[in-house]
Amino acid sequence: MFAKPFRVKSNTVMKGSDRRKLRADVSAAFPALSGDDVSALVPSKEELNVVKAYAHRGDAVTLYVLHKNPVFFEVEKHIYPTVYTLWRYPDTLPAFTTWPTVLQKLAGGADLMLPGVVVPSQGLPEVKQGDCCAITVVRNRAPVAVGTATMSTGEMQGLGMKGRGVSILHAYMDSLWAFGDKSGPPSIPAPHSEDCAEEECSGEGDVPEEAAPGPDGDSTTDTCCPDLQELSLNQGETEQGEEHGNEDGGTEEEKSPQEQMDILLLQCFLHALKSKVKKSELPLLTSTFLRNHMFSCCPSGKQLDIKKSSYKKLSKFLHSMQQQHHLVEIKELSKGVESIVDVAWKHPELRSFCPPEESVSEEAPVDGSGDHDRPYHPPEITPLYVVSARLEPLFQDSQKRKGAVLSPEEVRTIITEYVKKNELVDEHNKNFININPALCDCLLEKSEYQEVEKLKWDDLFTRTMDKMQHSYKLLFPGQEPIIKKGQIEPINISVASRGSNKKVTLIKNLELYGIDPAAMATTLQHRVQASTVLNPVPGSKDRVLVQIQGNQVQQVGSILLGEEM
């Protein structure tokens, strides 16, 4: 139900009479809670809000929020506890245990399938069809999901533990959890953890189908945090993996692309913390940490793309590093902007991590030839001037006819020779040039014929070049020079609004400087983790407009100037 964001309709403080009714409803729905427990969850004087909302599928939902954490939610007059409440009172509901790998499926909107249920030695909890129940993972009694049983315990066993067991309504890491303080589940040892451990070992590598897509989405969307054990970058394991990889064809091939990206993500994270981040930089914006440090730690030949990992978003990954592994501390110092405020420099995982020898320190823009291995070198741009019919008399002595292309130095030299040859330098002040009939016709306006008799040298050169046609020469390293008419247009970077106050950054004229727009779009997409689109420029056949979400002017400028972001 909460796999995707919900829409809030109203948020008001709960009245005293409504609180008394809610306490009665909670006591009736959850007998395992004592009177003191209910009073703690629904206090008489502390701030308790009631939030009316609509789920993404249109279902009307009522949330009861205490101290900015949702404690209960109500759907169709049925009340359910949230994971925040169950972490305080884990025995509130009968609980089914599943494997840790199933949690990522539940967070994506999947229901719990019976083959994924771990049956403890004391047997399954007794439930009836429609009963509210919790989901835990092996070795931890802290519930990670809430749902309703699709059948009774007897029917589950009668079907041989096959089929859909629990319809999930709410899970850790979904949008209802994100509506609170986003804290992680506590570690509550299970009373039969030894039995579970034995079962886990015996079933290792043979985990049956555990989850199926629910009504909120696919079972693989918005995945949760993998175990740190799977992502451990212990140096001994890494070296061992490389040795076996050379003999058996590589261990990376045995892992899925998502698992490989998770490992690369953690490697870049640990490398950045150990080698790049300094204590004086804290607090450090998470976006800056990604752009300036993590991307620069990506090994050559690999590309870091968070969207291809199980986390999908940087915030999910960093919260996992904070809540489950205690490597960093993340805080929202301003609304909607998260920062790293502390790093556990003495953490064993961080201290034992050895950065790889080779890493890409900076990703340069790609040139138009499409050679991604060669860094981009900007062209040498030289302004040129074309002799026009009106100015042809001034260039005849130098054998330069109409259409001749000259550099600024050549123009100055030819005009200087013309002045000296015709003895036009003023005798009293050599900074001035006397105007003869040819200069008058070529450089002066009609209104100046009777007024202007002399010109300064700089004015003479400026007027001459202004009357000539403009062109320019592009010289790329190792290529023939390219001469084009007109003045070269600068790379245009602008910000426009799209829809309801959404900003996009537009980039034009990259082709003029030998930059492939598609390569620039790819570079930006990975640098800022935003979608890009290529559109044709109106009125031009060979120009492409790069559009990227958000205001990315500074990032684009940094890439074009070759600065490290």
From TrEMBL:
GO cellular component: cytoplasm
InterPro entries, A to Z: EIF2D (IPR039757), eIF2D_N (IPR048247), eIF2D_SUI1 (IPR039759), Pre-PUA (IPR041366), PUA (IPR002478), PUA-like_sf (IPR015947), PUA_eIF2d-like (IPR048248), SUI1 (IPR001950)
Keyword line: Acetylation, Cytoplasm, Initiation factor, Phosphoprotein, Protein biosynthesis
Ranges annotated as biased composition (Acidic residues): 196-209
A Pfam match: PUA_elF2D
Domain (SUI1) ranges: 491-564
Keyword Ribonucleoprotein: no
Basic and acidic residues bias locations: 241-257
Region of interest: Disordered: 184-258, 354-373
Occurrences of domain DM2 (ranges): 380-467
GO molecular function, one term: RNA binding
CDD domains given in the database record: eIF2D_C, eIF2D_N, PUA_eIF2d-like
Transmembrane segments: none
Gene Ontology biological process terms, A to Z: formation of translation preinitiation complex
Superkingdom of origin organism: Eukaryota
Family, as annotated: Belongs to the eIF2D family.
Role description: Translation initiation factor that is able to deliver tRNA to the P-site of the eukaryotic ribosome in a GTP-independent manner. The binding of Met-tRNA(I) occurs after the AUG codon finds its position in the P-site of 40S ribosomes, the situation that takes place during initiation complex formation on some specific RNAs. Its activity in tRNA binding with 40S subunits does not require the presence of the aminoacyl moiety. Possesses the unique ability to deliver non-Met (elongator) tRNAs into the P-site of the 40S subunit.
Protein name: Eukaryotic translation initiation factor 2D
Gene encoding the protein: EIF2D
